[in-house]
UniProtKB/TrEMBL annotation:
Residues 21-54 are annotated as: Disordered. The lineage of its organism: Bacteria, Bacillati, Actinomycetota, Actinomycetes, Bifidobacteriales. Keywords: 2Fe-2S, 3Fe-4S, 4Fe-4S, Iron, Iron-sulfur, Metal-binding, Oxidoreductase, Tricarboxylic acid cycle. It comes from Bifidobacterium catulorum. It comes from the Bacteria. The keyword Oxidoreductase applies. This is succinate dehydrogenase. NCBIfam families: dhsB (TIGR00384). Its EC number is 1.3.5.1. PANTHER family: SUCCINATE DEHYDROGENASE [UBIQUINONE] IRON-SULFUR SUBUNIT, MITOCHONDRIAL, SUCCINATE DEHYDROGENASE IRON-SULFUR PROTEIN. GO terms for biological process: respiratory electron transport chain; tricarboxylic acid cycle. Pfam families: Fer2_3, Fer4_8. Belongs to the succinate dehydrogenase/fumarate reductase iron-sulfur protein family.
């Protein structure tokens, strides 16, 4: 009987970029924007953090036995339980729903819980070095493009998966990125429905929910965008975001677009105005790396392009 590659037990080395921050001295704040508390683009930079947090950085290997169908998160949990309780990573739902476990796997931003060993494992050899730099514009990455043929490999080939914290953000510890800058930017663009009219009430005094129903066409315009889990994978892929001080970022723009596309929302003009600054839609360079790895299948670059056009039209109307 042959065992399918997906069921095989493999010996895999997790090569982890580790980081322990240096404790800050009381009364001294390290990092932050080189522009201090005032952003050159207007507004405050009080929430900005440096990507150059000081501390100890090193690479550590952990070897685990794993089924090819296990997730990378499963392997990290086994390392934490059985080898090194000091290893730090973040997760919550374990099912691709919460977005808390975005990291770089073999240099690619993605979620730990949905990443399968069979899709990411590679021979531990320089020939299989990670790609770096810009990724080509195009369709979302198909995992079959990335996976190696486990059946064709010599069973003694050493296998490795490389893990690092999500790029584009300061690292807090090991695989935990500080995503507060992204969350601040999302909050700034008010990611909630601002209904223009008064709530319609029925004769019995209750809110008439039927007044707020959406027909399938209206729903289609924002349904996919409402699946965004604010994981930051698109921001970690974006070469312009890198720290978020000069660009509000794809995740914040996607969540703003979700409400721009909602016929019930009455704050469209304010939403477009909020994106008119130099760190708004004008900062997007349409590289479209953001579209490559979204775990929710959102074509982030295309959605951003549609919003950029709306912002440009609103700007032209103001002149
Ligand atoms: S658009 Fe996709 S990749 Fe970006 S934050 Fe939302 S779910 Fe994550
Ligand atoms: S743990 Fe929630 S998305 Fe991965």
């Amino acid at each position: 009987m042959t065992i399918a590659a997906t069921d095989r037990v493999l010996s895999v080395t997790l090569r982890i970029a580790r980081f322990t921050p240096k404790p800050e001295r009381a009364g001294r704040r390290r990092g932050g924007s080189p522009f201090g508390s005032k952003s050159p683009f207007g507004g405050s930079n009080a929430g900005a953090r440096s990507n150059r947090v000081r501390g100890r950085r090193w690479t550590q290997d952990y070897t685990v036995s794993a089924h090819a169908s296990d997730s990378v998160l499963d392997c990290l949990l086994s390392v934490k339980r059985e080898q090194d309780p000091s290893l730090a990573f973040r997760y919550s739902c374990g099912h691709g729903m919460c977005g808390s476990d975005a990291v770089a796997i073999n240099g690619t931003p993605t979620l730990l819980c949905t990443a399968k060993i069979r899709d990411w494992v590679k021979p531990d050899s320089p020939e299989f070095a990670n790609e770096d730099g810009f990724r080509p514009t195009g369709e979302p990455l198909d995992s079959s493009d990335r996976a190696i043929d486990l059946d064709a490999l010599d069973p003694d080939t050493p296998l490795v998966i490389e893990l690092a914290a999500l790029p584009g953000f300061p690292t807090r510890r090991d695989l935990i990125a500080d995503i507060d800058p992204m969350l601040d930017q999302i909050r700034r663009l008010k990611p909630y429905l601002q209904a223009s009219g008064e709530l319609k009430t029925a004769p019995n005094g209750k809110v008439d929910a039927f007044e707020y129903l959406q027909n399938p066409e209206q729903l289609k315009r924002y349904e996919l965008l409402s699946n965004c889990i604010a994981c930051g994978v698109c921001e970690g892929s974006c070469p312009v975001y890198a720290g978020g001080e000069a660009f509000v970022g794809p995740a914040a723009m996607i969540l703003s677009s979700r409400f721009l596309n909602d016929s019930r929302d009455g704050a469209g003009r304010e939403r477009l105005e909020a994106l008119m600054g130099p760190d708004g839609s004008a900062a997007c360079q349409s590289v479209r790396a953001c579209s490559m790895h979204c775990p929710k299948g959102i074509d982030v670059g295309e959605e951003l392009w549609q919003t950029i056009q709306k912002v440009d039209a609103a700007k032209a109307a103001l002149q």
